[in-house]
Amino acid sequence: xxxxxxxxxxxxxxxxxxxxxxxxxxxxxxxxxxxxxxxxxxxxxxxxxxxxxxxxxxxxxxxxxxxxxxxxxxxxxxxxxxxxxxxxxxxxxxxxxxxxxxxxxxxxxxxxxxxxxxxxxxxxxxxxxxxxxxxxxxxxxxxxxxxxxxxxxxxxxxxxxxxxx
Length: 165
Hints:
The structure is a single chain. The protein is mostly helical. It is about 75% helix and about 0% strand. Helix 3 packs across helix 5 (about 100-130). The longest helix is centred in the middle third of the chain and has 30 residues, at about 55-85.
């Protein structure tokens, strides 16, 4: 019984490990009327700037590009901790660099990108989150208001913590 199962398993394994062109060539040799048929798939052509057609598309692409700003801020936070581990002088040089006018202007643009990213992200919440109280669905405006309220509270707590009470 074991030998029969082992033989069957060996045939299955060999069947799947046999290269496909060899199988096809064997089949074509046994059936001379066989012709390869490759259907041409329909692929709609899109222009490279398809996203410029509608305002919604442009907002989508800009929102996706603003995630680069989110990544930049994450890298800057990690860099700041790394520089801080280098001592007080290294950190003072880093802060002096961050206070230069060009960096301040760049960080102002990054802040605008982050605000746009945050607002558009929060505006997606009612579409992704369906809340129910009992059997009634919470309206989209309620979900949106809750998210903006949480954002405002988190910002106020952060400002209170950084500036002091």
